[in-house]
Amino acid sequence: MCIRFALIRYSNGVFDVCDEKIIKKNQRRIEKGSSKAFYNVKVICIDGNFEALEDLKQQLNKEKKLLIVFERLATKNYGTNSRYSCKQKFCIFCKTLKTNLARHFEICHSEEAEVRKFLSFNKGSPERCEIIANLRKSGNYNYNKSNKENPILIRRVQKGSRDSLPCPNCKGFYSQITLSRHYAYCCKDLKDENASRSVLRAARAVVSKIHPAAYLQLKEKILPPMKQNIILDTVKKDMLLILIGKYLVPKYREHQEYMIRNKLRFLATYFLTVKKIDNNIDEFHKLFYPQHFDLALEAVKQMGEIDNNSSVYSKSTSALTITHYLKICCNILQSHYIRGGDDGNEQAVKRFFKLLKTEVPGKINKPAHRDLCEMKRKKMMTKRSIIPTTKNVENFKIYILKNAAKTYKTHD
User: Fold this and answer.
1) Which 3 state secondary structure label does DSSP give 28?
2) What angle, rounded to 10 degrees, do the helices at 293-303 and 316-340 form?
3) Which of 10, 70, 75, 82 lies closest to 45, judged by CA?
4) Contact 327, 353 (CB under 8 A)
5) What distance in Å separates the CA atoms of residue 143 and residue 262, rounded to the nearest whole number?
6) Residue 5, burial from CB neighbour count under 10 angstroms (0-12, 13-18, 19+)
7) What does the DSSP 8-state code read for residue 195?
8) DSSP per position, 335-369
9) Rounded distance, CA 236 to CA 230, Å?
10) Is 165 helix (H, G, I), strand (E, B) or coil?
11) The whole model's pTM is what?
12) What pLDDT, on the 0 to 100 scale, is given for residue 123?
C-alpha cells in the first residue's frame, strides 16, 4: 500500500509535511480549530512522493509565501459513508458545494452586496448569523429544486425518513416531521395564530413544478393537498389534465374542491393504465386520435376489471365514469385546438369523439349497466334474506300486542 503525505501550512505561515493518516484522524478537530497539535492548519496538497513535498516545503518556507486559496481535503476523498464526511452547502453565487460557506463568502465573494452587509457586523452577532443563514438557505433551495433525490437539509435525518419540504417562509428544507414545529417558530414574528396549520400544503405549493397553463388556484389550493405520488406528478406535468382542472375550477365552490381532486386523480389513473398498455403515449392528449381508439377502449376495460371469460365487469361504475370523462376531454381538447388554430388536431379529436358516440354505448355502457344492475339485485337479495320486510315487522307487532292483552286478562 502506497503511503501518502500531506503538505500543510500553519497560521504563522510555516509549511510542514506529515502523514496523511494523521490529517484524517484529526480532520474534525482541524476544521473546528480545537486541535492543539494542528491549530489553524490548512492542507495544501497530498502526494505519495515524500521527497517532492519536502523540497516544496523548504522552498515555500524560504520564500515565506502565504497562499490565499487553499485546497483542502475534500469530503469525497473519504467517501460518503465515512465517519469523516462533512456536510456541504450550496453557494448561491458560484453554484458550487462548499463545507465552510461563511469563509467562502468572505474570501471569494466579498464584493457582493449581501456579503459586504454581513461583513460590517462583528463575528457571532445575531445580524451577521441571520444574513449568512438566509444566504445558505437560498443556495440550498436552488440546489434542492434540481436535486430532489439527495436534498441538502438544515438538520441531518436518518436514512429512510420521510421526504423533505421547504419552509414557506425561509425556504430552508426540513423533514416533514419537524417542518410544522419549525414553521410555528419561524413565523412567530408574523403573529399568525394558525401558522402551523396547513404548512405541508403551503410547502408543496412552494416546491412543486406545475405546468405553466395551470391557474393560481390549482397551484395553491387544489393540487398541494394531494398525496405526493406518481399520480400527482402525472397531473402536474400533463397539459390536458391541467386544462381539465381549469375547466372544473369555476364549476365548484371552495368546499367542493375535493371533487376536483378526485376527478383529476381518476383521470390520471386512467392515463397511467394507458401508458402501461402502450408506453409510446407519453402525454394524455396523444390518446385522442382515431388510430388509438381501440387502445382507449382496452384501458377502459382494464379500469373496469372485466373478466375475459365471462365478460363481466367487477367495477362497472369505473367503466361508465371514464367513458363520460372521455367525452368531456374531447370537448376541452377541441376548444383548446380551436383557440390555437390547430385544424388538423381538431378534426382528429372530432373523429375520435364520433367513434365514442357510436361504439361506446354498445361495447362498454350497455354491458356495464347490465352488470351494475345485476350487482345491485344481488345486494338487495342478500339484504332481504337477512333483514325482514316492513310487512313482516307489522304482523309481528300485531301478534305481540294480542298475546300481551290475553296474558294481561288471564292474570287479572
Assistant:
1) helix
2) 140
3) 70
4) yes
5) 33
6) buried
7) T
8) HHHHHHT-HHHHHHHHHHHHHHHHHHIIIIIHHHH
9) 10
10) strand
11) 0.57
12) 84
Q: What is the DSSP string of 29-93?
A: HHHHT--STTTT-EEEEEES-HHHHHHHHHHHHHHTPPPSS--PPPGGGT-TTSTT----EE-TT
| Residue 206: strand pairing partners | none
CA dist list (Å): 335 to 19, 338, 346: 73, 5, 8
What's the confidence (pLDDT) of residue 352? 94
Q: Which pLDDT tens digit goes with each residue over 19-70? A: 666 666 566 555 555 544 454 555 656 655 666 666 666 665 655 433 333 3
| Domain residue extents for the chain | 5-77
Could you give the CA distance from residue 303 to residue 322 in angstroms, rounded to a whole number? 8
Does the pLDDT of residue 176 top 50, yes or no?
Answer: yes
**What is the model's pLDDT at position 106?**
84
Nearest to 163 by CA among 125, 200, 191: 200
pLDDT tens string 221-251: 888 788 878 898 888 889 999 999 989 988 8
pLDDT tens column, 394-408: 888 899 998 888 888
What percentage of the chain has pLDDT greater than the value 70?
71
Three-state secondary structure call for residue 187 = coil
User: What number is the average pLDDT over the span 84-113?
Assistant: 81
154 CB-side CA count, 13 A: 21
Residue type, 91: C
Alpha carbons 314 and 382: distance in angstroms, whole number: 18
Query: Measured between alpha carbons, how far is 224 from 139 in angstroms, rounded to an integer?
Result: 24
Cβ atoms of 18 and 46 closer than 8 Å: no
